[in-house]
Amino acid sequence: MIDGAPWLFLQGDWRVAPLDKVLRSFAWAKDGQDCAEISVVELEAADSATLAVLMEWVQQARQRGTALRIHGASSKLQELASLYRLQDILPLCHD
């Protein structure tokens, strides 16, 4: 919790190969908590699969009536989102 809001901190390698293993064990609403803020500042690597997962989470949050925000995206991840023209869909906060 940061300032009363539950956060999810992503770190490590979130490219497609290691991502599958992590997602199999990840429970989105673990212990009844729902994240509205996600930090990706500690990601060591990211690719289009990372963007696909983030887009899915954004859609799921909208369906639950929650506005999801993504913090700390590297310039490379921001460039990749821009390349796929996702900058208006993915709520990448510039903080």
What do these coordinates show?
The structure is a single chain. The chain has about 100 residues and is an alpha/beta fold. The chain is about 35% helix and about 20% strand. It is built from 3 helices and 4 strands, in the order E-H-E-H-E-H-E. The chain has helices at about 15-25, 50-65, 75-85; strands spanning about 5-15, 35-45, 70, 90-95. Strands 1-2-3-4 form a 4-stranded parallel beta sheet, with no helix packed on it. The radius of gyration is 13 Å and the shape is globular. The two termini are about 20 Å apart.
Topology readout:
Elements: E1 7-13, H1 16-25, E2 37-45, H2 48-63, E3 69-71, H3 75-83, E4 92-93
Parallel strand pairs: 1-2, 2-3, 3-4
Please provide a brief summary of the model.
With 95 residues, this protein is of the alpha/beta class. The protein is 37% helix and 22% strand.
Low-confidence stretches: none
Quote the beta fraction: 15-25%
The secondary-structure element order is EHEHEHE
Number of strands: 4
Based on helices, strands and strand pairing, what is the structural class?
alpha/beta
List keywords for this structure.
single chain; 4-stranded parallel beta sheet; 3 helices; 37% helix
